Amino acid sequence: MTRRTELSYPLTAAQSEIWLAMLLESKSIGDDAPGSMGSESGIAEGSSAELGTLGYASPAYNLAEYLEIAGPVDVPLFEEALRRAMRESRAMYTTFIAEKEETRQQLPPDVDWHMPVVDVSTESDPRAAAEAWMHADLSRPLDLKRGPLFMHALFQAGPNLFFWYQRVHHLVTDGFGASLLAQRVAHIYTALIEGQSPQPAAYIPLQEAVEVDQAYRASKAFARDRGYWCERFSGRPEPVSLAREPALAHQSAVAGILRQRGHLSAQTRAELGQLSQHLGCSLPQLLIALSAIYLYRMTGQSDLVVGLPVTARMGSVMRCFSGTVSNVVPLRLSLSADMSLQALSRQVGREVRRSLRHQRYRGEDLHRDLGLQQDGQQLHATSINVEPFDYSLHFAGYEARAYNLANGPARDLDIYLFDRGADKALEIGLDANAQLYSTDVLAEHHGRLIRFITTLVRNPTCAVGSFELLTERERHQLVEGWNATTQPVPEATLSGLFEAQVARTPQAIALVQDGGDPRRAHSSSLTYAELNARANRLAHHLIASGIGPEAIVALCLEHSPEMVISLLAVLKAGAAYLPLDPAYPQERLDFMVADAEPVCLVTTSALAGRLFSHRPTIRLLLLDDAEVGSMLADASENDPGDHERWQPLSLLHPAYVIYTSGSTGRPKGVIVSHTGIASLATTQVARFSITAASRILQFASMSFDAAIMEVLMAFAAGARLVLPPVGQLLGTELAAVLRRQEISHALIPPTALTSLGHEDLPAFKTLLVGGEACSPALIERWAPGRRMINAYGPTESTVCATLSTPLSAAQPPPIGTPIANTRAYVLDAGLQPVPVGVVGELYIAGSGLARGYLGRPGLTAERFVADPFGARFGMSGARMYRTGDLASWRSDGTLAFVGRADDQVKLRGFRIEPGEIASVLMGHPSVAQAAVIVREDGAPGDKRLVAYVVPAPVMMPEPSELRAQVAATLPDYMVPSAYVMLDTLPLTPNGKLDRKALPAPQRKHVLPGLRGQRKSGNCVRCLPSCWVWSRWGWNKSDWTIISSSWAAIRCWLRGWSAVFARYWRSNCRSGRCLRPLVWSSWRNG
What we know:
Blueprint: E1 8-10, H1 13-29, E2 56-57, E3 62-69, H2 75-89, E4 95-99, E5 102-106, E6 117-119, H3 126-138, E7 142-143, E8 150-158, E9 161-169, H4 175-193, H5 206-217, H6 220-232, H7 246-249, E10 257-264, H8 266-279, H9 283-299, E11 303-310, E12 327-334, H10 341-357, H11 363-369, E13 382-387, E14 393-395, E15 398-407, E16 413-419, E17 426-433, H12 439-457, H13 472-479, H14 494-504, E18 509-513, E19 524-527, H15 528-544, E20 552-555, H16 561-573, E21 576-579, H17 586-596, E22 600-603, H18 605-611, E23 620-622, H19 626-634, E24 654-660, E25 668-673, H20 677-687, E26 695-697, H21 706-715, E27 720-723, H22 731-740, E28 745-747, H23 750-753, E29 766-770, H24 776-782, E30 787-792, E31 802-803, E32 817-818, E33 822-827, E34 840-846, E35 852-853, H25 857-863, E36 864-866, E37 879-889, E38 895-900, E39 905-907, E40 910-912, H26 914-921, E41 927-935, E42 944-951, H27 959-967, E43 978-981, H28 1003-1006, H29 1018-1022, H30 1039-1043, H31 1049-1066, H32 1075-1083
Parallel strand pairs: 6-8, 13-16, 18-27, 20-21, 20-22, 22-23, 26-27, 28-29, 29-30, 42-43
Antiparallel strand pairs: 1-5, 2-7, 3-9, 3-15, 4-5, 8-9, 10-17, 11-12, 14-15, 16-17, 18-19, 24-25, 25-35, 30-31, 31-32, 33-34, 34-37, 36-37, 37-38, 39-40, 41-42
Helix pairs in contact: 2-4, 8-9, 9-10, 15-16, 15-19
Organism: Halomonas binhaiensis
GO cellular component, one term: cytosol
InterPro entries: AA_adenyl_dom, AMP-bd_C, AMP-bd_C_sf, AMP-binding_CS, AMP-dep_synth/lig_dom, CAT-like_dom_sf, Condensation_dom
């Protein structure tokens, strides 16, 4: 029983932070049973918790180790030495009370406690038996109010082998304090055995330690330390985590701990010591550098922040305090592939010295200063703890060796390096959060880290990026095993595949135009023979006009059978088609025509008059022109042959040119040849089980390369391609087409998929998603009862490079495995394969690779690089495409998409370069600087483009002007939905845009247009709050602002589908205002 005293003291800063962490953990768990902390009633200014009731302490915060004493132990004298040392220190006697709604610590004059003595010498494995007892003790919750918060036990494993076990809660002491106690016990025991008097203890009392702590926090030194850390991390990088789900790593709570332990040999330890002397650094600095290199190579993140545990005991006074003082300070390092080990070691030395000068400033204080604690974010995910403590303790001449059992909680990953001396092995341990790491994954990292350090120390002159991470077996699996995709496919062009299908099933329906009439399945259709004949007539006309291979023919047509006919005709003539979407802004169309220089533009009179009348030199082929119609009627219906074309058609000739967003503000045309067409077609027919009875929805715009995927799905298997009605296809209208046409296969972007309600679509058996990440909720909703597959591929790789197996909501959707004759590599900055689970940049190689960028040889050379592994596949001189996407291999050989290595984003399935939008904004005379990012401030998946603008001096651009500037140049999916004015753009210390510091758009930015306006009854209030408004007036034509945020899709889910669809087609696209829409909605109520 503990004898209480009325003396109590406030918590130190270190204790307060531990207390707060336990409270937050307890609150998140919501457990009131023993083992939880009890309820939180508030947090005081100094981070102290104010509790009315005390509960039990989580065992996760226990510290424990045992000392192996290699010799006989006099048990009574040992216990006497231990009790003397405990009374001298007294820190471990601490318990906690609630006093005036404030948590305080009290220090009773003495505590009754028992030291178990356990004989395990008769066990088959004495050490294992002792450790089992210790681990059972470690799992017990502790009563913070009653105590004791420590445990000591002595195990006899043999006549000359004893284990001294000590366990203590982290609120009471830290690792340094525990080592002070161990040293004191060894000293007293040795003195007692030798019949001498121990030297006096030098411990300082708890009260003095509390006063020193409070004085520091009120001092100028505290302010200086705070200033140093805040400046050092004003522009912080993302935490570096080895977890395979980084998003979880940044938000995870303290959980169970997984542990791996192993050793570097004594020889390797000796080599490390020699190397540190050669490099002019300490061994701990070298070990930190080696661990940092491992993190860099495993993540590719060059701006690293790791946690560095420190004693935080500055001054002789605090070095004599055995309570809790320790801290974890952030260590920021900058690495590059060409950096030498010596340069990094010296950098580590400089950073460590700077950090130690400011080590008393709490890491938790810095988290608050940086605003991280509000969202549960972390400054660092991984810590590196080098413990060069003196383990050469001797009990009456017999050496004792320490074995660590518990270091407290692990939020992510903690690396421990226990140095036992130059002639002994160096222990390497990993403690990991069980929510983030599996036992197998942790074991992989542990073994790899040991191999990595062993290899690196014997090749110290190599650059950081050249150290080998993989075994030869792993390298073979990553490069060759999971890229064994070689498959025979027809040597045919796209038009050749179509013509072969025409020969097999000439009378089968090839193309259907849905007219939007719910009473009729279709308003027009063409058989394969009819479609082929019409395409052949146009192809012969093009050939007669001198058009053939290597020529580019632009197609500007509505979504109609004429578009498909013209596409096939251009390909049959041997030329490449360039799709021009009539809905694109005039400036965008003009740029594409001027850049591609097509030899001909196939369009209609109406579109030509509206879009191309200002270009009198362009050669037009008007499909609705009577003279053209007459010539086509007289043209041959036979398939063109090479003897008729201007030159033989080869698979290497271009098939199409599609423009994608450019980071410099200039879109780039991707030239794709026929080489990968047959591989894509073969893969689709097999993987999607496409038959002649299948019905494929042609959902994508022809200016988007996904349209090729849809066309091939149908025409390579003799299936039916269904063209939906002209106009926006979302919500109930999309569902109606799927039902009316009995669509069996469709490629629908996730954002468009969200517009569909819970529809009964029995024929819809294969759903392909792609272009952007698909949420687990969508998978859970759409995967049951059908085959749901994730498709991934950049335009530069013939539409699709990888396909997943059928998706399950139980795990994040992978992007799958490479399709036929396609290879995928996940590489680091040095173009070396990275291990399973490690994030690298995704490179694509194989038959589907594009030629490059039209008229951009420099950019082509930059993005299409030599394939260093091509020779392994018998393809020396092959190229690979640098996607800019970050990915990782899973252990099952599938790829997981992680994000982007650059600023490029995917929004609504479209590839967008924010730099292109910013470039357009900066073309406005009132804009000095601009930046554009994608924000996801609302519901998960609700993404929108936000522009940040710094006005030119004495200028203030109107958001309406900026929106108009962008809309006149770029497609509507690239028009930002909000504009935020800033005095300056926030920058990181290295001069880059600090995206994290950009503020979220506030209501004042997006809602002022409604202020002062007369509301049109309750209808206005019924408009969904997810609509994005701007400062433009209520009567202005602002539909583009709403349509540019796909949050508006949710409006359809609330019963507005028919009204929106009608109004979109008849009013919004023609620039009419929004008020009639509200009135129409009210009338149709």
